[in-house]
Amino acid sequence: MKLQKKAYIDYWRQRMAKGPLQAGTEEQAEEIWKKIKGQFEGIDPHAILEFGCGYGRMTKRLRRVFPDAHITCQDLSQDAVDAVDALGLDNVKTICGHKMLVPVTPVDLIFTCQVLQHVTDDDIFNKIMKGFEKALAAGGTILLFENCHETEADHMSDRPAESYVAALQAAGLEAATIGDMVLNGQTHCFIIGRKAGNGE
């Protein structure tokens, strides 16, 4: 049986509290980034939401690629949020909380990396997807990198890539799988979504 809402939130907070090595390594972050960075070509976001920022490994890379963008980083771990604050990155705002953030001002890009794979409750998962749609500006892009490998772990979902695509589409976004890679012996998928622009 998969963990329920409070249980998996508690699990992840405890795991993050063990420190950065428990939340992925710098080497893994660079391996993922090399595979994913090409998907940002042609995107010039003014505002970015990183949902599940962890200790800021991807935040640093987003800042390098988009030096002028406003970046909002959200995570349920206060330790993680504090670590991102400690990086001292310009124009980066942090928020601690597990509920999907819907900014007052819509964002042009949403990025999440190995986060939704831990949301085992389907209702919460679908609410997050709908929140993504509300948070995106017209013409905005969302890029997900998630584990799509079948697993017996209680804190992990068993969603294939098609489930992520279907959930984004049900939320009102265009969506497709754009590739995959093997990380730690498990298949991870890249999923991209887009909100129709004004007049489309």
Q: Keywords for this structure?
A:
200 residues; alpha/beta; seven-stranded mixed β-sheet; globular
Structure description:
The chain is an alpha/beta fold. 33% of the residues lie in helices and 27% in strands. It has helices at 5-17, 26-36, 57-65, 78-86, 122-135, 161-170; strands at residues 47-51, 70-75, 92-96, 107-113, 136-147, 174-183, 186-194. The chain has a 7-stranded mixed β-sheet with strand order 3-2-1-4-5-7-6, with helices on both faces. It starts with a helix and ends in a 6-residue tail after the last strand. The mean pLDDT is 82.
In short:
The chain is α/β, with parallel strands linked by helices and 200 residues long. It has helices spanning 5-17, 26-36, 57-65, 78-86, 122-135, 161-170; strands at 47-51, 70-75, 92-96, 107-113, 136-147, 174-183, 186-194. The chain contains 6 helices and 7 strands.
Write the layout of secondary structure elements.
Layout: H1 5-17, H2 26-36, E1 47-51, H3 57-65, E2 70-75, H4 78-86, E3 92-96, E4 107-113, H5 122-135, E5 136-147, H6 161-170, E6 174-183, E7 186-194
Parallel strand pairs: 1-2, 1-4, 2-3, 4-5
Antiparallel strand pairs: 5-7, 6-7
What order do the SSEs take from the amino end to the carboxyl end, as H and E? HHEHEHEEHEHEE
Q: Tell me the span between the first and last alpha carbons.
A: 43 Å
State which percent range the strand residues make up.
25-35%
Q: Count helical runs.
A: 6
Low-pLDDT residue spans:
none
Binned, the helix content reads 25-40%
Strands in their spatial order, largest beta sheet: 3-2-1-4-5-7-6
Tell how many strands the DSSP assignment holds.
Answer: 7
**Major sheet: size, sense and barrel closure?**
7 strands, mixed
Structural class computed from helices and strand pairing: alpha/beta
Question: Shape, please?
Answer: globular
The average pLDDT is 82
Radius of gyration: 16 Å
